[in-house]
Amino acid sequence: MVACLLAAAAALPLAARAAKLPRPDHVLIVIEENKSFDQIIARSLMMKSAAPYINALASRGALFTDSHALAHPSEPNYLALFSGSTHGVREDRCPLALSGPNLAAGLLERGFSFATYSESMPARGFKGCFADHTLYARKHNPAANWSSLPGSVNLRFEDFPRDFARLPTVALVIPNQANDMHNGRGPDSIRRGDAWLESRIGPYVRWAASHNSLLILTWDEDDFSPENHIATLFVGPMVRPGRYGGRIDHYRVLRTLTDMYGLPPLGEAARSDPITGVWRRAKRGGN
Description:
two-stranded antiparallel ribbon; 11 strands; about 30% helix
C-alpha cells in the first residue's frame, strides 16, 4: 500500500507538467548540420539570408535565440537528442552498439509510434555506416545504434508518407549530407538545404497548420565554435509565434517531447525543464 502511494505521488509532477504542454498528433523533427545561428537567421527583416524559407518559418513560429548544441562533432548531439546521453562518445564513430532507454522505445512502450526517415539510406533497417557515396551516414541516424529497436523504426526518406496523417507520433527526418548543409562551408550549402526543406517538408508544414502537428527544426551543432549557438524553431498551430530568449539545448527539447507524451524523462534530460511559455492553450491530441 505504501509503495503504491509513493508511486502515485511520484507520478503527479509529471502529469502536472504534461498538462501544461500540448500533445500534438505528430511531431516532425528535422535535423540540419554544422551551421551557426547567425549563418541561418537574418538579423532583421531588411537583411537577406541564404535561408529565406527557414526565416519565413521562423517568423511564423517560435524562434529560440539562445539555443545551443551540447558537443562537437555531430554524433554526440544526435545521441543526446534521442536518448538523453552522449554515451561517452566524443567523436563520430560507427558502428556503435548502444543499450538503454531512448525516445523511440519510450514511445513504443506507451502505445505511441516513432520512425526515423533517412535520405539516401539504401534499405529499411540498414545498419551500414555509409551509403550512396557517403551521402548517407549512420552517425546522423541515432536509432540505428540500438539493436533492441525494431527495424521498422529505421526507414528511408522514400518511405515518408504522402498522406501525412499516417506519420508516426514522433519522427526524425535526416536529410543526406548534400541537403542538410553538411557538405560545404559557404552560403551555397545553406541555400541548397533551405530549398530542400521548402520542397520536401513545406507540404507537411502547410498541412500541419490545420492538423495539430508540430515541426521542430534544429541543428546538430554550429560551425565548431565554443558557443555552439544554433537555430531551433517550433512551427505549428499550438505555437505562439515570437522570438524567445531563454536558453535551451537538445536535452530541453527531448524533455519537452517526453513530457508531452507522459514518458519518463531520459538521462541528462531529467535535469532539464520542458520548454513552456511558447504554447497556445494546450490542446491534447488524439494519439
